[in-house]
Write a structure and sequence with these properties.
Length: 405
């Protein structure tokens, strides 16, 4: 493992995390952020569904924001706080600084909930400002680690986190002016989709290869120019969608990006991972990403056939929901010293989140039955994330097993 020097201490990243003597909950970024984000994903959807069904004060913009910047933003920060030290060879954020970031995220969620039910616009401005601080702080942290660690390979990740933070600012400005935030939402969705394509495109074949080497199964294709070309196509398609969201060329590029991401996925031989759901679910998450891109493109080209909602929710409930849970379950087990196998709880979680995505996309297409599908999807979504919190909460809060310390 790469050696690092910081504050005149030379230790490995893993050793630095183990050397931390405080409460285990703040020994690594994924612990607080994965657990709290999962709880928030499981609780906030029923809150919004109740308001949506009964005409409450909480509107669609709050739901969109909390899923995209609240839940997804929290998971991204938890992942990056864990991964960036390994990428850059620098000290991880643990203890009080990690606790401070956790409090900042939590206060942001409470501020957004208070703002959603507040009739007074002035307090909402201040509450929005609290929410903005979290992703801004994370963007600054990632840039600092990448630059000081001279880890130029991950500059694109720092750029994407920065764009996500700025799109959160834009979201609040748009909502304040018009009540909706279509531009900022598209930008943020594009950033997260590109993160899945880039980081998921690294981890999925890598973890698949490691697993297959142990059992002698077929190996996924090694990264090559096709992977680079698909990433470029995906980036161009997403930029085009933001520049001209209703143009036929943007729709065509998105449809092509979906198709070529499916081709990229096929090269990783996910069919051979059925015996281990912890590996298979990574392929499922990437599959939903490809479907989301393709359906959004088809919705632009043929809106009377494919509603935009179907594509958006294939990308969000499917691509984001499935891939984040795939990463959360695997990383939680690996970084707390547990065996890398899904177990019965993992299988149930994966089943529920995929059913939630399928129901949400179906409800977006079958408009006459939209509400029943929406409620069923929200129920499965919440069940998946609350099941994660129940099954993995003890791992994330408590110490590593004695044999792994």
């Amino acid at each position: 493992m790469r050696r690092i020097t910081h504050w005149r201490i030379s230790v490995s990243t893993a050793s630095a995390m183990r050397a931390y003597k405080g409460h285990p909950f703040f020994s690594i970024g994924l612990r607080p952020f994965f657990l709290l984000s999962a709880i928030w994903a499981g609780v906030s959807v029923p809150i919004w569904l109740a308001a949506f069904s009964h005409g409450g004060a909480i509107d669609l913009s709050w739901h969109v924001h909390e899923m995209l910047f609240g839940y997804t933003g929290g998971v991204i920060v938890g992942f990056l706080m864990t991964a960036v030290p390994n990428w850059t060879g620098r000290m991880p954020v643990v203890g009080a600084p990690l606790a401070a970031m956790t409090v900042l995220w939590t206060v942001g969620r409470l501020a957004m909930l208070a703002g959603a039910v507040s009739p007074d616009f002035t307090p909402r401005i201040w509450l929005s400002s609290i929410d903005i601080l979290f992703l801004m702080a994370m963007a600054a942290m990632v840039w600092r680690e990448v630059v000081v660690g001279r880890n130029w390979r991950n500059v694109p990740v720092a750029v994407m986190v920065s764009v996500l933070a700025l799109s959160n600012v834009g979201f609040h400005l748009e909502v304040g002016l018009t009540g909706l935030a279509p531009v900022s939402t598209r930008i943020a969705l594009s950033v997260v989709a590109m993160m899945i394509a880039l980081i998921g495109g690294r981890t999925t074949p890598s973890f698949t290869r490691n697993w297959q080497l142990k059992r002698g199964g077929p190996l996924p294709a090694l990264p090559d120019r096709l992977d680079q070309a698909v990433l470029v196509l995906t980036l161009v398609a997403l930029v085009s969608w933001n520049v001209s969201p209703e143009s036929s060329w943007a729709g065509s590029l998105l449809a092509a990006a979906g198709l070529f991401n499916l081709l990229r996925l096929a090269r990783w031989k996910g069919y051979a991972t059925l015996a281990e759901p912890l590996v298979l679910i990574l392929h499922m998450g990437y599959f939903w990403l490809a479907c989301g891109l393709g359906l959004i493109g088809l919705a632009v080209l043929a809106p009377s056939v494919i509603p935009q909602s179907a594509g958006i929710h294939a990308l969000t409930a499917g691509g984001i929901g499935v891939m984040t849970l795939a990463v959360m379950t695997r990383a939680s087990r690996g970084h707390t010293g547990r065996p890398l196998t899904a177990g019965a709880a993992g299988v149930i979680i994966y089943l529920m989140i995929n059913v939630a995505a399928l129901l949400r996309v179906t409800g977006g297409i079958w408009l006459d039955a939209h509400m029943p599908f929406l409620i069923a999807s929200g129920t499965c979504w919440s069940a998946a994330f609350l099941a994660f919190a129940l099954a993995y909460g003890g791992m994330l809060i408590g110490p590593r097993p004695a044999s792994q310390r």
